[in-house]
Design brief:
The complex is a heterodimer. Chain A is α+β, with helices and mostly antiparallel strands. Chain A has helices spanning about 45-65, 100-120, 120-125, 130-145, 150-155, 160-185, 190-200, 205-225, 230-235, 235-240, 255-260, 270-275, 285-290, 310-320, 330-335, 340-350, 350-370, and strands at about 30, 35, 70, 75, 75-80, 85-90, 90-95, 250-255, 325-330, 375-385, 390, 395-405, 415-420, 425-430, 435, 440-450, 455-470, 475-485. Chain A folds into three domains: about 45-235, no CATH class; about 250-355, no CATH class; about 375-485, Immunoglobulin-like, CATH 2.60.40.10. A two-stranded antiparallel sheet of chain B has the order 2-3. A two-stranded antiparallel sheet of chain B has the order 5-6. The model of chain B has no long low-confidence stretch (mean pLDDT about 90).
Chain lengths: ~500, ~300
């Protein structure tokens, strides 16, 4: 089909198979559903591997350790979904504090934008639970079954007692780690010390059992079997991070100009004389890759940016006595213009990155500021559902309000309620309200004005709720708006 | 609605559902193969924008397995649960059945609690914090609509926190009021009282009974006409709980204070109703509610 030039939209023709490409012999019917090729990543040492292990240890120390910390008489971090109270060290959050979660999500999103703009899929390569747990499970696998070649040999071998023992051993360790992970996860929602007791006595609640084993199953399946499949086919972040790259983003790059033409050579031979580049074609970069790609083909969507190929290539370069950095973190512009390290880094801190940094800073400051200025209680004023207004003895007009006082402090507080906004407005029976620690309470409050002191209709008023501790001076104060209705 | 009562739509929906599920399976089967140049550069041969070529990038087979699991799940679901037309499903599940089961379960859970309260006197229940927490919720859901969430009522709806009771404030009487409801009837009495002037005079006499501001001349004139009212309200105007006749000597004005309101009442009368709760609430709930209401005026600490 030939497109008409008059057409307002550009129509791009789809060229059929027979056109352009060589015909006949190489066109085949293939299945669009492929069996998964198991990947056996080779172990690797180097600076990036070290960083990854640092992050594995840090994230897991936090994850496994946090629920065991105590704060006063309670668990330091506990999300009590049943009681709808969320304890984070000294802070008690109510569902009404959801805005803080929003702030944390905004911070997470902008951190992702920032790190991705600077150095690609840093999150994927170093901190994502999928990577972290795969790394832990691979470590177990390596300890039991050996490194890449040994594992491949073991899998190819017929079933033997040795193979059976090794496989069972590995899976039992994996399952142990998985259950511990699931248990820890549930420990964030159900007090972990009680949960531990229940776990060993076998009397956990049915939902606790479900979530411990569901999360354990997900860990076992994702880190033991799915691994790179999750990143390649399931994870949405993997895909949209690619859209945040630009030509100044640091990505794991193969220096093709220096490396090609690749080829094996004697250690003593001069590559220039043989017409070869620096790449000795040892294929180690492919063997260490957790997603099974060849970095020498350039940036690919499967690349999680872990830097394993850069690490292993550096060790090879050291061995053969060439300069390091045949595979390294570099940017597209740096490769094209031959920039030095300093020049590259200068370009990394471009307006986009600075903007992300600024926004991130603002949100973090706003979050910390609002947490610091947070009042230890919340108030909700609702006009009574039943009566609009009534006339009571003493010639007064009375309105009824239901006030919910939510005590977010971990001590009982007393509340003094007053109201302003109309002449002669008083709170009838002004007994102070006591609300126990972290509890919330509804109270009925009656406001009265003298008859005929205000015109018929709706008048804006506001409540003033002051909190104080027993015998102490006023600590905090909240104002809430409402209306006072005067009948005709 | 009648369009949907026939068999046609049931069969149609069931048919569309089943055909849709089968079609997914067939689609999965037929879209599983494509032409590609695997030997050459592993592209499908499709070219866009001159140089964009589509790679042959096959879906992992386990993902296809997930599709098949959803299809099997759909078929099993349709067999087990109502979904295919009028088929009730192997499990015989209905939303109404689930509701009833949940209500029964909840009732069974709280039954021992109510049994405990039932064995206690109303006075004792009113001092039980747990019972009062239940009572508060029952009151909010069933009583607050008329009596207000602070139980102080409004015009036409009695205040439950004072010591003034139209039908008696003993625990037994409160329970009776809750169970059977009450009808308070003030007949139009203007004809019995006399002329409109007489009615006004009686109104002022009524005001004088509670020491409210009134015209003492009219009040003294009205006193002689009050006999028409005394049958129910008593000669002294202190009312009669057996009849539900209000005490006129206290300063509590359920239907409005002042001459106009009282003249209106005498002239037009009024029927006021407390609906019976026996059909809405269980005996146990009424017991707890009686204690709650009794406690409002008798336990100062419980009153809010």
């Amino acid at each position: 089909m030939v497109t008409e030039d008059k057409s307002p939209r550009k129509i791009v023709p789809i060229v059929p198979v027979t056109e352009g490409a060589k015909e006949g012999d190489d066109v085949q019917m293939v299945s669009l559903y492929a069996a998964t090729q198991k990947i056996y990543p080779r172990s690797v040492q180097g600076i990036f591997a070290k960083w990854r292990w640092v992050l594995v240890v840090l994230t897991q120390l936090v994850f496994y350790g946090l629920p065991w910390l105590e704060w006063g008489q309670r668990q330091a971090v506990l999300f009590d979904l049943g009681a709808r109270r969320f304890y984070i060290f000294g802070i008690v959050l109510y569902p009404q504090d959801f805005i803080y979660l929003t702030a944390i999500l905004v911070i997470s999103a902008f951190s992702l934008f920032l790190f991705t703009a600077i150095a690609g899929r840093l999150w994927c390569g170093y901190a994502c639970p999928q990577t972290v747990y795969s790394e832990i499970f691979l470590w177990v696998e390596r300890k039991i079954e050996g490194d890449r070649t040994a594992r491949m040999k073991l899998d190819a071998a017929d079933m033997s007692l040795e193979k059976l023992v090794k496989k069972w051993y590995k899976h039992i360790v994996w399952i142990g780690i998985s259950i511990w992970t699931g248990f820890t996860f549930v420990g964030y929602f159900s007090p972990i010390r009680d949960l531990g007791m229940e776990f060993f006595l076998g009397n956990m609640g049915s939902w606790e059992i479900f979530w411990v084993f569901f999360y354990a199953f997900a860990t076992y399946g994702n880190a033991g079997f799915m691994r790179e499949q999750v990143c390649k086919y399931m994870c949405p972040y993997a895909r949209f991070q690619s859209a945040m790259f630009d030509k100044d983003t640091l990505i794991v790059t193969y220096d093709a100009a220096r490396g090609e033409p690749r080829g094996a050579r004697s250690k003593k031979a001069d590559p220039a004389a043989l017409g070869l580049g620096s790449c000795v074609d040892c294929s180690l970069c492919v063997q260490v890759c957790p997603t099974g790609i060849d970095i020498r083909k350039g940036l690919q969507y499967e690349c999680i940016g872990c830097g394993a190929c850069a690490d292993v290539c550096d060790t090879v370069m050291d061995k053969v006595g060439y300069a390091r950095g045949l595979v390294k973190y570099s940017t597209e512009n740096a490769m094209a213009n031959g920039w030095s390290k300093e020049q590259t880094w200068r370009h990394v801190f471009r307006p986009r990155v600075l903007l992300y940094l600024a926004i991130l800073g603002v949100v973090v400051v706003a979050l910390l500021g609002s947490l610091a200025l947070r009042k230890p209680f919340k108030v909700d004023v609702v006009r009574d559902r039943a009566s609009l207004a009534r006339i009571v003895s003493g010639g007064k007009i009375e309105n009824v309000y239901r006030i919910q006082i939510m005590n977010a402090a971990e001590k009982a507080l007393n509340f003094k309620i007053s109201a302003q906004g109309l002449p002669g407005l008083v709170v009838a029976a002004d007994e102070d309200v006591r609300v126990e620690a972290t509890q919330s309470r509804w109270v009925s409050i009656r406001l009265q004005i003298p008859y005929d002191s205000a015109s018929a209709g709706s008048h804006p008023i506001h409540f003033q709720i002051k909190s104080y501790e027993e015998g102490a001076k006023v600590v905090d104060e909240i104002e809430e708006k409402s209306v006072f209705l005067v009948p005709r | 609605m009648s369009d949907f009562n026939g068999n046609f739509w049931h069969l149609f929906v069931a048919g569309v559902t089943l055909v849709g599920i089968i079609a997914c399976l067939i689609l999965l089967w037929f879209s599983g193969k494509a032409k590609a140049m695997t030997a050459n550069d592993n592209t499908t041969g499709h070219v866009w924008d001159g140089d964009l070529r589509e790679m042959n990038n096959p879906l992992p087979r386990w993902w296809v397995g997930l599709f098949i699991i959803t299809i099997v799940f759909a078929l099993v679901y349709l067999f087990m649960y109502p979904g295919a037309g009028t088929n009730a499903g192997k499990f015989g599940w209905t939303s109404a059945g689930q509701y009833t089961a949940e209500v029964d379960k909840a009732n069974a859970e709280v039954a021992p609690l109510y049994a405990k309260f039932a064995s206690m006197s109303v006075e004792d229940v009113s001092k039980d914090a747990q019972a009062m927490a239940i009572g508060d919720r029952l009151f909010m859901n069933n009583c607050a609509q008329c009596h207000g969430s602070d139980a102080r009522g409004s015009k036409g709806f009695p205040n439950l926190t004072d010591a003034d009771w139209l039908h008696g404030g003993s625990p037994e009487k409160i329970k009776e009021t809750l169970t059977q409801g009450r009808i308070g009837q003030m007949p139009p009495m203007a004809a019995a009282v006399g002329s409109p002037e007489d009615v006004r005079n009686v109104a002022h006499y009524v005001l004088s009974l509670s020491g409210s501001p009134h015209d003492s001349l009219r009040a003294s004139l009205g006193k002689s006409k009050f006999g028409a009212c005394a049958a129910c309200h008593g000669m002294d105007g202190k009312g009669n709980p057996a009849l539900g006749a209000p005490n006129l000597t206290d300063d509590i004005w359920l239907h409005g204070w002042g001459e106009t309101a009282i003249v209106n009442m005498i002239t037009n009368g009024k029927t006021n109703q407390m609906p019976a709760q026996a059909s809405k609430l269980t005996e146990g709930q009424i017991h707890v509610l009686s204690a709650y209401v009794w406690g409002l005026s008798n336990n100062k600490s419980a009153a809010k």
